[in-house]
Amino acid sequence: MMKQRVLLLLALACAAGAFSSFAAAQARPFPGPDLQQIYQRLLPQIEKIPAFDHHAHPGFADDPDVDAMASAPDTSLPQRTRADNPELIAAAKALFGYPYDDLSPEHAKWLVAKKAELKKQYPGTAYFNLILDKINTESSVANRAMMADYLDPKRFPWVFFADSFMWPFNNEREAARNPDEAVYIPLQEKMLHRWMGQENVSKLPAKFSDYLEFIVRVLADNQKKGGIAMKFEVAYFRPTTFSDPTRQQAEDIYRQYASAGVPSEKEYRTFQDYIFRFLVNLSSRLNLPVHIHTAAGIGNYFNFSESNIMNLENVLRDPRYRSTTFVMIHGGYPLEREAIWLAAVPNVYLDSSLGELVQYPSAFKDTLKMWLETFPDKITFGTDCFPYNEVLGAEESYWLGAESSRMALAAALAEMVSENEITETRALALAHAYLHDNAVKLYGDKVH
Ligand SMILES: [Zn+2]
User: Fold this and answer.
1) CA spacing 20 to 30 A to 152: which of 19, 395, 412, 433?
2) Span from the CA of 55 to the centroid of ligand 1 (angstroms)
3) In angstroms, what is the span from residue 235 Cα to ligand 1's centroid?
4) Ligand 1 geometric centre to CA of 56 (Å)
5) CA–centroid distance, residue 430 to ligand 1 (Å)
C-alpha cells in the first residue's frame, strides 16, 4: 500500500514537471479578485504581438475584386456589423484622428478627404501597409477574386476562390432558385470566365479530362502568382453535404451538359460533389490548404441547416484527405462549440474571424476561452475585414476586428489564469500561437 502511494506521488510529481505551464493549484470555477489586474497586465503584452490575419478582404470600397460574390439584396446584417455602429467612429478616431463624435454626411466628408490625403502621402502599396502597421498586423490574407496592385504581396498573401469550377453549365435553374442566387450565380460564371481567360481557354473543353486539366492549370498558375490557399464560399450557393460520386458519373454529366442543356438539380449536385472532392485532392498534391466558409451567411435565403459546418464532417474525417489542410473559416459560428471538436482531426484548423465582429468582446471572450481550453494549437486569428462603404472602409473594420480579438483574447486568458488553469507565461504563449504562429506554420516559409 505504502509503495503504491509513493509511486503515485512520483507519478504526480513527474506530471507536474511535464505540465509546468499549467497552474500548480487545482482549477476553480470562478475567477478571483485578481482578474482585472491579470487582464491589465496581459492586454498591453498582447497588443504588442504582431499578428497574422488569416481571413480578410482588404481593398477600397469601389474595388469589385474584394470578393468573388456580392451582397445579396435586402440583406439584414447583425447589429454590430451595420454602418451605424458607433465603434466604427472610435476606429476612425484611432486610425485617422477623426475629430467628430458622429458620422453625419458633413463630418463623413472629413474622413473621406483625410483618407484621400493619406493615399497621396503613402502611394501604391504603402497605404495599406500603413494600416497594417497601425493595428500591429504583420501580414494579412487577402481573400479576393483577384489581387490588387495597391496591396503589397509580401504582406498580403492571396487566397483565391475555387467555387466557380463547380458551375460550368447552363445556370438558369441555379440562378432562379431565389433572389440571392440571382446575384451570386452570375458572379460565379464571371469568375469561371476570368479563369478561362487566364488560361486562354475560349470555351468549355469538350472532354471532361481537359476540363479537369484546365482546373489544375488555374490552381498551379494562381499558386505561382502568390496564392497560398484556395477558398470555398460554397455554403452560399448550395448545401455543404458532399456525396462521393465516381469519375464516370461526373464525366457522363459533363458530356451531356458541357455544350447545351440545363442539368437537373440532382445531376448538378452530383457533378459538383465530384469537382469539390477533386479540388480537395488537388490541394494536397499542390500543397494549397483549403479554406471553407463555415458560418451563418448574409442574405435572406442562406440556408443554415443545409450549409452548417457539421455537414462537412464526412469530408474532414475522410482518411483519403488526411494530407489536405482544412481551415474552417469563421469556425462554424454560431456552432463554434461543436466545431472545435472537428479540430481534433490533425489536419483541421478553425479560424475565428467574423465571430469577433458579430459578437461583442464579452461574448467572443467565451468562444475563445472554450477554444483555448480545448485545442489551442488549432485555432487562428482573422478579422474578415471588408470595405463597408466609402466612409467606413476595410481600414475601420480591420481595426475593429483586431482590437476586439485582442481584448477578448486578453480577457479569456486572464480568466484562465485567475481560475488556476494556466500560468501567465503559458497565457502569453497561447496568445502568440492564436494571433500568429498557428496560422503561419500552415504555409511553410511562404508567409510570416
Ligand atoms: Zn470573408
Assistant:
1) 433
2) 6
3) 12
4) 6
5) 24
pTM of the prediction? 0.94
C-alpha of residue 156 to centroid of ligand 1, in Å: 15
- Say how many Å lie between the CA of residue 99 and the centre of ligand 1: 30
Alpha-carbon dihedral of residues 293, 298, 302, 306, nearest 10 degrees?
Answer: 30
Q: Which of 211, 342, 351, 216 is nearest to 281 (CA)?
A: 216
Cβ–Cβ < 8 Å for 316, 346: no
User: For residues 154 and 395, is the Cβ–Cβ distance under 8 A?
Assistant: no
Q: How far apart are CA 79 and CA 359, in angstroms?
A: 9
388 CA distance to ligand 1 middle (Å): 13
pLDDT at 440 over 50: yes
- Note the pLDDT tens digit of each residue in 130-150: 999 999 999 999 999 999 999
Separation of 107 CA from ligand 1 center, angstroms? 29
Write down the H helix ranges in 199-264.
208-224, 247-257
342 C-alpha to center of ligand 1: Å? 20
Q: 66: CA distance to ligand 1 center in Å?
A: 10
- Map grid coordinates 494600416 to a residue: 131
Q: Comparing C-alpha atoms, which of 240, 237, 170, 168 is closest to residue 204?
A: 168
In angstroms, the CA 448 to CA 441 distance is 9
* Confidence at residue 9, expressed as pLDDT on a 0 to 100 scale: 47
Measured in Å, residue 322 CA sits from the centre of ligand 1 at 25
Amino acid of residue 51: A
Region label for 56, one of left (φ > 0), alpha (ψ between -120 and 50) or beta (otherwise) = beta
Q: How confident is the model at residue 20 (pLDDT cuts 50, 70, 90)?
A: low
d(CA 375, CA 430): 11
Instruction: Single out the residue of 167, 146, 443 nearest to residue 290, CA to CA.
Output: 443
**Ligand 1 centroid to 350 CA: how many Å?**
14
β-strand partners of 351: 380
Average pLDDT, the chain: 94
At 365, list the grid cell.
Answer: 471572450
Q: What is the DSSP letter of 150?
A: T
Cα 159 from Cα 226, distance rounded (Å)? 9
b (16+ CB within 10 A) / e for 244-259: ebeeebbbbbbeebbe
Q: How many residues does the chain have?
A: 448
Cell numbers describing residue 237: 450557393
57 Cα–ligand 1 center, Å? 6
Asked if 91 contacts 97 with a C-beta cutoff of 8 angstroms, the reply is: no
